Inverse folding.
């Protein structure tokens, strides 16, 4: 059954959606969507390095994204430039360096489109293992740091004052972000991965009344997007990554209708 | 370590500067079990900064802080909950520590907001939110409570009731309280020790001592000093040296 490329794609997508659900909620809560974008852009550099040194792609992307995240923290300490300017600087310079390096690797044939928008249908059994084992590890660590991370998301000083060590939780979360980008880059591509993080979470916010519910709906939204997106890409012969994101947008629009209805009910 | 077992937190000449400007400098004070220490002073005098130094939120400080407890409850001066966070009062109560339902209900009842338990935090009024903040801080039965203007926006009768509650908590839990307040009248009657700040400690001592201090008068005006003397006149009982209470 795993021989079928479509089944493999489905299993990969489901694995990724389960992890992007809760992480995406934190991205929305902590206003990190540009941070996610920056890490994703830097992933191109990671991919090219993986090719040039014959390294595992996910591992290489993870290392480069983590380095970029650490660089950002250092830059924030050394200059007074606003955060979005620093993020833009890192995102585009790492993307540029990645593209320059590709130029030097003329002996390798690159599937740039697959890199930018994902190539979930080319997922191998090895990729599945990376997604599911890596994903399980990410969720486990997230569960361990949930309390300090969530408390400091609500109010940093409260968490610090009551002894929860929010700085450590934030640093670990940054590493988790690099990890999720590393394991999901093959599925939706570096231009669309932030969409996979924030659109299901944004959809979930519209219909949830508590943080736990939001995480749950975010996971469900991600799963539905993957299933809907993949089947429609098979049906209409469209690119799979963009189809998944388009499906999640559809769910987001539906969730807006729900809000309007509940407001009507209140009045 | 301090020889006094009752000390919960102690500041020794503590100060904090931001962008080469001192927010507060040379503050020495200590909070003991069962005692209420109140910080007073005009806006920008460093009251909240001092509280944050005591809590360990500011780390690059001048002087030193010795903290002898990790069971801390904090009511910050300002807190805003983003719309993107769907947070009910119930979720907020277990933010930093998992406590059981009975303790949550008890704390919310004490501050008079048990009926808001399932409401979204964003839907609360300023005064209601303040009561929830206080309930959250006391529900975990802390050894040290740091309250930064805990009754702002609370209605007049509620304010008095909450100050009484704070006094009661200090007695019942035997916890030390570091309180910041603008309301001299109410605060002075409940507090054990007053520290008057204006970028530095301008005077400190018992409420009566501080009220008679000339620097205090210069800072708050003659009227503030009279508030306290009026309070003294209203005192309808005396504490004898044996600890008994005698009606006047």
């Amino acid at each position: 059954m795993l021989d079928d490329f479509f089944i493999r794609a489905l299993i990969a997508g489901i694995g990724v959606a389960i992890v992007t659900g809760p992480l995406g909620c934190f991205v929305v809560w902590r206003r990190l969507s540009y941070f996610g974008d920056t890490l994703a852009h830097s992933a191109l550099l990671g991919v090219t390095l993986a090719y040039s040194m014959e390294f595992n792609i996910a591992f290489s992307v993870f290392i480069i994204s983590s380095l970029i995240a650490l660089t950002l923290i250092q830059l924030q300490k050394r200059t007074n430039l606003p955060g979005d300017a620093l993020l833009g600087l890192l995102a585009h310079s790492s993307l540029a360096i990645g593209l320059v390096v590709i130029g030097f690797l003329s002996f390798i044939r690159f599937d740039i489109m697959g890199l930018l928008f994902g190539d979930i249908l080319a997922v191998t059994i090895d990729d599945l293992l990376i997604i599911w084992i890596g994903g399980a590890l990410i969720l486990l660590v997230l569960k361990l740091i949930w309390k300090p991370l969530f408390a400091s998301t609500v109010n940093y000083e409260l968490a610090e004052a009551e002894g929860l060590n929010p700085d450590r939780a934030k640093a670990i979360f940054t590493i988790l972000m690099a990890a999720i980008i590393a394991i999901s880059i093959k599925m939706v591509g570096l231009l669309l991965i932030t969409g996979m993080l924030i659109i299901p979470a944004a959809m979930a916010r519209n219909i949830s009344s508590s943080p736990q519910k939001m995480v749950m709906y975010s996971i469900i939204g991600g799963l539905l997007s993957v299933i809907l997106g993949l089947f429609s890409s098979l049906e209409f012969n469209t690119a799979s990554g963009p189809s998944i994101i388009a499906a999640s947008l559809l769910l987001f629009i539906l969730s807006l209708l729900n809000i309007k209805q509940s407001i009507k009910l209140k009045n | 370590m301090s020889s006094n077992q009752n000390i919960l937190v102690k500041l020794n000449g503590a100060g904090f500067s931001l962008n080469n400007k001192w927010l507060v400098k040379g503050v020495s004070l200590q909070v003991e079990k069962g005692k209420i220490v109140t910080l007073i002073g005009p806006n920008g005098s460093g009251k909240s900064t001092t509280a944050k130094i005591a809590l360990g939120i500011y780390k690059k400080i001048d002087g030193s802080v010795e903290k002898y407890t990790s069971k801390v409850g904090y009511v910050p001066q300002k807190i805003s909950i983003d719309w993107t966070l769907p947070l009910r009062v119930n979720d907020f109560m277990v933010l930093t520590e998992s406590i059981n339902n009975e303790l949550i209900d008890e704390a919310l009842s004490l501050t008079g907001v048990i009926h808001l338990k399932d409401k979204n935090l964003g839907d609360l009024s300023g005064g209601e939110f303040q009561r929830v903040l206080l309930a959250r801080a006391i529900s975990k039965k802390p050894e040290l409570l740091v309250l930064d203007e805990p009754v702002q926006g609370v209605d007049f009768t509620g304010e008095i009731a909450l100050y009484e509650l704070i006094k009661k908590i200090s007695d019942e839990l035997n916890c030390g309280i570091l309180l910041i307040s603008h309301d001299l009248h109410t605060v002075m009657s409940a507090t054990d020790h007053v520290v008057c700040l204006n970028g530095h400690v301008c005077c400190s001592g018992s409420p009566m001592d501080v009220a008679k201090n000339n620097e205090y008068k210069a800072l708050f005006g003659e009227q503030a000093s009279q508030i306290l003397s009026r309070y003294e006149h209203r005192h309808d009982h005396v504490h004898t040296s044996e600890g008994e209470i005698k009606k006047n």
